[in-house]
Design brief:
This protein is of the alpha+beta class. The protein has a single domain, classed as Phosphatase 2c, domain 1 (4-Layer Sandwich). It is 15% helix and 29% strand. The strands form four sheets. Strands 1, 3, 4, 5, 6, 7, 15 and 16 form an eight-stranded antiparallel β-sheet that branches. A hairpin with a 2-residue loop joins strand 13 and strand 14. The longest helix is centred in the C-terminal third of the chain and has 13 residues. It is globular, with a radius of gyration of 19 Å.
Length: 351
């Protein structure tokens, strides 16, 4: 996760990588971003090792890729996987974006990367079991993870999410649905956090203690070459847990025991594409990128090339305290080490 509440142009992400990708005819394992690094001052990405997804008009495909931070590999915590369930009941996409380390580890991310997702997701109570398992890990103060899971059949997809690793769905090259991130822009989430009559307790959907906001800023991409900042608070759940989203796994249950879910039905005679990605990708894109993201010829590896390039490019930065028309932008890149690791999973169905 990018802890990108900073002044000027600091935000956080990716580069040296461990990658994986599949078509629907093969089984897959998950990918964690690599913790290895290069000593070059501006290293280029390592070659991506993946099976090139074919995009036929009559069947489904899926693939995924994880790109680690090239300047701060010790902070790589993304996880991604895709595949078909053990008994071929559905295809699935899973993306997790971890944050926080304790003794150099994030035990929440370690748990998620060890799950046998092909088998585990066939249990209809998988979200409850995820929360139970993380609770049993013990102390998760200051460490956590987002999680987005998509179960896909030929007729529909079910989306389950915690945090801001967003899922977006495209129909015939148009975006028709996007998950409402668990952040300050989500009205229902703000109500959940600040509802005065909420119930408390470790198994409640509400935070067990009073939450307060800590004002801050985060980066906002205006166009493929322009960037600014926007006000975005941290959420202080208690003395040990302060994060920039309203909901997360871990953190000793400080965010409550809550997830969102949605079912999106497919039309028979339409192309569909499902893209799930961590904020290391979405934070580098705008509505102008929609045609490329939605294209049937754009797989996970092509998508991740966008964020890789943009985290390292020069940006025209506009101060958010002035009108864009009243200032000359400052030209420059993100500070070294401020990139975010990035995970992307893609599923496509053609007619």
């Amino acid at each position: 996760m990018s802890e990108q509440h900073t002044s000027s142009m600091s935000s956080t992400a990716g580069s040296e990588s461990s990658t994986s990708s599949t078509s629907s005819t093969s089984s897959t394992a998950g990918s964690e971003c690599s913790n290895t690094s290069t000593t070059a001052s501006v290293p280029s990405p390592l070659p991506v090792t993946f099976v090139e997804p074919q995009l036929p008009s009559t069947r489904t495909i899926y693939n995924h890729v994880c790109q680690g931070r090239r300047f701060a590999p010790q902070r790589n915590q993304d996880f991604v996987t895709s595949g078909t369930s053990t008994h071929a009941l559905f295809d699935y996409l899973v993306v997790a974006d971890g944050h926080g380390l304790k003794d150099g580890k994030n035990i929440v991310c370690d748990y998620l990367s060890a799950v046998d997702w092909a088998r585990f997701l066939e249990d209809e109570n998988f979200m409850t079991k995820i929360y139970d398992s993380i609770y049993e890990l013990g102390n998760t103060n200051r460490i956590g993870s987002t999680l987005t899971i998509v179960l896909i059949t030929i007729n529909q997809c079910e989306v389950y999410w915690v945090g801001d690793s967003q899922c977006r769905i495209y129909k015939n090259l148009e975006e028709v649905w996007a998950a409402n991130n668990h952040d300050f822009n989500n009205t229902a989430e703000m109500t959940r956090l600040f509802e005065p009559n909420r119930h408390s307790g470790t198994r409640s959907e509400f935070p067990p203690s009073r939450v307060r906001e800590d004002p801050s800023w985060r980066t906002k991409v205006i166009s493929p070459t322009e960037i600014t900042m926007e006000r975005a608070p941290y959420f202080v759940f208690n003395a040990e847990n302060k994060i920039n989203i309203t909901n997360s796994l871990g953190h000793n249950g400080a965010c409550g025991r809550f997830w969102s879910e949605e079912v999106v039905e497919f039309d028979d005679m339409a192309d569909y594409k499902v893209v799930v990605a961590s904020d290391g990708f979405w934070d580098m894109t705008t509505y102008l990128d929609l045609p490329f993201i939605a294209s049937r010829g754009t797989g996970a590896d092509e998508l991740i090339s966008i964020s890789n390039e943009r985290w390292l490019q020069n940006w025209h930065y506009y101060c958010p305290l002035k009108s864009k028309n009243e200032q000359e932008p400052t030209l420059g890149p993100f500070p070294e080490g401020q990139e975010d690791d990035t995970s992307i999973a893609v599923w496509y169905k053609g007619v």
